[in-house]
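dumping this here so i dont lose it
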């Protein structure tokens, strides 16, 4: 009974979306921000619901997914990849360890560091969960055709890189002052 609310979406909603009444105007920065924020909120809610349907909270899913695709990692490496605060990361690891989905191991390189690894049960769960989650995302994103996906990807990446670089430069200037 996984994600019935997403599974009910058409496999390719692109034609339906084109029929929606959308203005083709030249949006200003404030309008783009509003659209981006609303889109993020709506898609985030769908993602969280998709993951919740798998019996996981989003932070736990992100930790398992990082381990699935990157292999064993230190807790700080995972934290940097999934952008979780330290307290949230600790809570997620504790929950996953309690469910026997991950194990903490010491490393010979640095005995203070803890490396997380998926257990067999954890790997089975995240393998299945990631496949179902990916299918949910494909259904949600099917409203966009390939060209739109490519354009959106490039534009968002460019904007994100510019914003990150601006933050980095501002932090460096503040530190210098």
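and the seq i came up w/
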């Amino acid at each position: 009974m996984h994600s019935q609310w997403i599974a009910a979406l058409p496999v390719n909603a692109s034609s339906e979306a084109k029929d929606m009444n959308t203005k083709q105007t030249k949006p200003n920065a404030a309008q783009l921000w509003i659209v981006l924020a609303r889109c993020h909120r709506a898609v985030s809610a769908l993602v969280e619901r998709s993951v919740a349907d798998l019996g996981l909270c989003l932070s736990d899913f992100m930790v398992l997914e990082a381990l699935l695709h990157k292999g064993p990692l230190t807790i700080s490496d995972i934290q940097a990849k999934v952008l979780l605060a330290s307290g949230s990361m600790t809570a997620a690891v504790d929950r996953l360890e309690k469910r026997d989905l991950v194990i903490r191991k010491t490393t010979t390189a640095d005995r203070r560091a803890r490396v997380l690894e998926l257990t067999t049960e954890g790997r089975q769960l995240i393998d299945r969960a990631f496949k179902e989650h990916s299918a949910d995302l494909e259904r949600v994103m099917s409203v966009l055709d390939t060209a739109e996906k490519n354009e959106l990807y490039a534009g968002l990446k460019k904007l994100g890189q510019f914003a990150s670089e601006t933050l980095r430069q501002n932090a460096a200037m503040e530190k210098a002052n």
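Residues 106 and 114 are 5 Å apart (CA to CA).
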